[in-house]
Each structure stands twice: as structure tokens, then as C-alpha cells.
Amino acid sequence: MKKYFVKGGILVNTPFFKYENAGAGYGEDSMPDAEIIPTNKVLPSGEKYLLIDDKHPQSLFAEYYASSFFTTGYCWAPLFHKSYIVDYEEYIARIQDARMLMSLSLKQSDERARGLLSRDSFLAVMNAFENYMADIILTRITNDENVFYDYASKRSEQKKIQNDLTAGRNGAAEQKVIEYVLRQSYCSADKIKETCKELFGHTIKVHQKIVDLFTTRHLIAHRGGRKKDGTYVTFTNEELEDAIRKITILVEAINKCLIERDNE
């Protein structure tokens, strides 16, 4: 675990940062094993400090100590607080959002409005799954420095990440990895299998019925749900519930793997 010391203050001005431990009022002599980080800002009083924000990131896997003050105006972003249990609970909450949208669809007398809301309901189910996948990845990698950097090093196609790693810009590299995870699409059988094998050591089976749901998701997301014949995909309440059942079976299979890994 890295330990950093700042001759001055530390101001954290972003929710997208966490630290293992931190404090202020320390002398340099009391931190003989700490690496000194230079300050980058000056208060109107003339006091120097280290600003940590989205433009001046620092590593998540370290302790930070200052000689004068340590101040943060934010709580950590939820992605840093989550456990696998919370990840699953978040998935269930988003599924309820999908059901809420479908209930609005069923109340519409206009057929077009009904169809539009039903498509949005289906997309909400798929989004709940994508968010779940991103959440469990971030829960895994942001709680283990070795796993994080192993994951980062394997994203060889992400040149900006690799450049930061090579240059020792760990904070910048870490933020880019988090952004990478959040912008990926996980509605892909191959992506699911690769992710679960790489990070959790388990082989997940993705059935053809799930692949068919992903195909429908892509049709709605990229073509508004319009089929080759010019008609649009729509869903009944029964069809939406069937999609929820299938996706939830997959989520629970993945969740079981997470629990088994933690219990090893």
C-alpha cells in the first residue's frame, strides 16, 4: 500500500476518488516511509495544497497525509461503496422501474404510445442488466489493487490507459479504467463469458434465449425497434415478464459465482 505525504494541505474536490486512509497535522519526520507529493494549488492566504479532482487525479489505492489540512467536499461515489449484495439489490430496483414503465404503457389508449412505452420498458430491463455487469466489475477491481492493475494491463487496445500506466500516471489510468468499464456494452454472450472468467474465475453459460433478447435490445437501441418489414417491436406485459425472468436467471447464476468466489 502506497503512502503519500503533502507539505501543505489536501483538498479532494471530486466524488470519483477514494483513499485507504488519510489525515492531517503530520510532520515530515513522522512519515519516513511516505513518498512526498508536490502541491499544485495555492490558497489566497498563500498556503500551498494538493488539489485532487477530475483534472488532477490520484491513485485510489493509497494513504494520504498532509502537514496542514485534509478536506473533502464530497462523499465517495456509490460505485466505491458497493458490495455484490448492493449490486444485486440495485438490479432488482431497476427491474421495478421497467415494470413501472410497462404499467404506464398498459394505461395508454393510443397504440403508438403503448408500443413506445413497451419498448422503453424492455430497454430498461436490458439497462438493468448492463448496469449490474458494470457494477460487479467495479466492485471487484476497485477493492483489490492487484486485480485492478491486472485488469488494466489486459486492456491493451486502450492506448490512453497503457500510456498512463507506462508513464506512472496511476491516478489518471485508474479513472480511465473506470470510464472504460462504464461505457462498455455487456449485452453480449462473449463479453459476459470473458468477464466472468477473467475476474471471477467461473464459466457462465449464456443460453440462446438470452442471446435473442440481446438481439432485440440492439434492434431497439440502434434502429428504434423497426424491423425489416417496417413494423416495430412491441411487448405485452407477459412478454416483458418473460424477458425479466430470463435475464434474472442469468443474473442469479452470475451472483452465485460471486458468492462462491468470496467463500473460497
Give the percentage of residues in beta strands: 5-15%
Q: Helix count, per DSSP? A: 9
N-to-C CA distance: 24 Å
- Average pLDDT works out at 95
The biggest sheet, with number of strands, parallel, antiparallel or mixed sense and barrel status, is: 4 strands, parallel
Strand order, biggest sheet? 3-7-1-4
What is the β-strand count?
8
Ranges where pLDDT stays below 50 over 5 or more residues in a row are: none
Helicity level, as a percent range? 40-55%
Computed structural class:
alpha/beta
Write down the Rg: 23 Å
Rough shape? Answer: elongated
Q: List the secondary-structure elements in sequence, H or E.
A: EEEEEEEEHHHHHHHHH
Q: Which structural traits does this protein have?
A:
264 residues, alpha/beta, four-stranded parallel sheet, 9 helices
Structure report:
The protein is an alpha/beta fold and 264 residues long. Helices cover 55% and strands 11% of the residues. The chain has nine helices and eight strands. It has helices spanning 78-81, 84-106, 111-141, 145-153, 159-166, 170-183, 189-200, 208-223, 237-263; strands at residues 2-6, 9-12, 21-24, 35-36, 41-42, 48-52, 62-66, 70-72. The chain has a four-stranded parallel sheet with strand order 3-7-1-4, with no helix packed on it. Strands 5-6-2-8 form a four-stranded mixed sheet, with no helix packed on it. Helix 2 (84-106) packs antiparallel against helix 3 (111-141), helix 3 runs parallel beside helix 7 (189-200) and helix 3 packs across helix 8 (208-223). The longest helix has 31 residues, at 111-141. It is elongated. The two termini are 24 Å apart.
